[in-house]
Amino acid sequence: MNVKTPSKLEKILASGQLAVTSECGPPRGSDPETITKKAELIKDYVDAINITDNQTSVTRMCSLAACIRLKLMGLEPILQMVTRDRNRLALQSDILGAASFDIHNMLCLSGDHQSFGDCAQGQNVHDLDSMQLIQTVRHMRDEGKFLGGDDIKRPPQMFVGAAANPFADPFEIRVPRLAKKIASGVEFIQTQCIYNLDRFEEWMKLVRDRGLHEKVHILAGVTPFKSAGMARYMKNRVPGMDVPDDVVKRMADTPKEKQADEGINICVESIQRLKEVEGVHGFHVMAIEWEEKVPGIVERAGLYPRPEV
Amino acid sequence: MIVADKKPIEEIIDEIKRHTKILILGCNECVTVCESGGKKEVEILASALRMYFTNNQQEMLIDEHTLERQCDHEYLEEIRDRIDQYDAVLSLACGVGVQFMAEKYHATPVYPGVNTCFLGATEQRGLWTERCQACGKCILASTGGICPVSRCAKRILNGPCGGSTNGKCELSKDLDCAWQLIIDRLKALGRLDDYETVYPIKDWSTDRAGGPRKVIREDVQV
């Protein structure tokens, strides 16, 4: 088994088994229990847990500190880092800070624009973009050097991930964009939430046609709907989200008190179908403020117990 | 050109009300083209201010003058013999003009009458949009002639980000996604393959990040 880092996620993917990841959003306060309680709910059902980085540009506990909390629980965090808030100096410094706690996974993102959050009058940084952040962390790990050229004592050992949205615009560059991230050095991908399975399968075919599925581990993103209202919101309001009408209708046709269960059913069925897609190497289950549902979804989808590596 | 927008008149009144003799100084360059600080705007603002101070029974002399350029010593010299007649100058030039004025006439307070906004172009009468952030190292050759530094809200050099929807930016349905424009343009040029070239980490030291900038050209110095 050929792995480059001590990451448990990398080991599972390299062994050819389907990986399962999930995510926790840090609190808008300093209470560590918010994060440890969420993690307790899901820890036995996932291989690694993403910690979001000031998602939707709303100020929260920093991703790195929350990742350290997980690490202290003996869990496997995925440090999300956006290029919105930090320049190359701060990004490299935080990567070293994470590495000092033996955090071995990172997800490189650009981040939502700050105007959506609680600091709309603030500056953004974007010294690097997400692809250049991928290049940066790979350079630090593989060359053992800073961007400035100096040697790093005890370089970080990060398994490097990024996001991909098979549904975003413009469609003709969805696959070239993935190829570009691979060329930058990305090793695993977590996709946008998949509801339009046909279109996702089309994208995967184009990915396979170029052999990209052999160069990167693709984890299919799924998010259960809590209600028909959420399905409509995701369809109409969230940029880059593709929710087909029949999925919205299925939720809307379900009596209100059973909609949450139906949302879980759709999620489990999606995973079952996506397990058969060549090139899908795992799942990223994003149950937004609904972490308690992750174990049931993972179990019903036949992804439990999680492998020991 | 440098695009500027009018300052709210209340803000201007607040600055100049402590004085009694004001020169409103327009500029015949960029701010004339973007209709915020040329001869016409000087006249309109002067009338509005005169009306305000008359209504408030405050004595205020307001004169008008428009220079060919305020970012040039030669033209600023034009007002040397009359500058002492005024308590202050209200300059409708861009921030460069206001500062040049302040540097040249140390003892005369100068107030900005416009907000300097960006380097841009007139898309149509009454609509100006940004095209350049003067980063000091032009990359337009590799982006099909469309600038992601000034036109992408995240100045992403390997875009688009996940927020691009139907060719529009996540910030607004009225704002084109710069990367959609770049991709359309590369396609039109038959160069879509170039999209897959990863743009390397940019040297921002020629941008604002490197501190106040200078261009020195010994070949044209006298």
Oligomerization status of the protein chains = heterodimer
Average pLDDT, all residues of chain A = 97
CATH topology of chain A: TIM Barrel
Tally of alpha and pi helices of chain B: 7
Largest sheet of chain B: 4 strands, parallel
Structural class of the secondary structure composition of chain A? alpha/beta
Q: What is the second-level CATH architecture of chain A?
A: Alpha-Beta Barrel
Could you tell me the number of beta strands of chain A? 8
Which CATH architecture of the largest domain in chain B is right? 3-Layer(aba) Sandwich
Give the CA-based shape of chain B: elongated
Q: If strands are numbered along the chain, what order do they take across the biggest sheet of chain A?
A: 1-2-3-4-5-6-7-8
Quickly name the level 1 CATH class of chain A. Alpha Beta
CATH class (first level) name of the largest domain in chain B: Alpha Beta
What is the share of helical residues of chain B?
Answer: 25-40%
Low-confidence regions of chain B: none
- Measured by DSSP, the beta-strand proportion of chain B falls in 15-25%
Q: What's the structural domain tally of chain B?
A: 2
Q: Within the largest sheet of chain B, what's the order of strands?
A: 3-2-4-5
Order of helices and strands of chain A: HEHEHEHEHEHEHEHHHEH
Task: Summarize this structure briefly.
The complex is a heterodimer of chains A (309) and B (222). By secondary structure, chain A is an alpha/beta fold. Chain A has helices spanning 8-14, 32-42, 63-72, 88-100, 130-143, 174-184, 197-209, 228-237, 245-252, 259-274, 294-300; strands spanning 19-24, 48-51, 77-82, 105-109, 159-164, 188-193, 217-222, 280-285.
